[in-house]
Amino acid sequence: xxxxxxxxxxxxxxxxxxxxxxxxxxxxxxxxxxxxxxxxxxxxxxxxxxxxxxxxxxxxxxxxxxxxxxxxxxxxxxxxxxxxxxxxxxxxxxxxxxxxxxxxxxxxxxxxxxxxxxxxxxxxxxxxxxxxxxxxxxxxxxxxxxxxxxxxxxxxxxxxxxxxxxxxxxxxxxxxxx
Length: 178
Description:
CATH superfamily: Aldolase class I
Number of helices: 7
Helix content: 25-40%
Largest sheet: 8 strands, parallel, barrel
Oligomer: single chain
């Protein structure tokens, strides 16, 4: 199972040290999601990481940083709505329904499905799926190795997510603190 870290949307104290520690401790991929911090903060952060560390980062908000820093890939969202035909990096996207997963699965390396549990970092963002709905989606092959659970994910929930055939677990609030 892939373990993915997603940064908080704003700058936090000691963030570079936290990112280095997470990558050293075995996080497979880090999603740099910083819409509130700005591109210059992201540049500064990326410049403090090694090329090996940067190669494990997917960018969410500033496409132009992808090639310049040789990042792993780009996450499609409201800030980056499409990729040029010449793009060859990792492609990811967020989904909030099983229908979206079915629609986009073939076009992306992996998809986030959320919120699986009540969010830790977004107040009032509650689980959108029951256990029975998740189980049924797993049985139908909707949830598979290309689907990553997001929303309220903590290390103690990984075994449960594996039992549902999720290909990964993404954490933000459980890893990053203000």
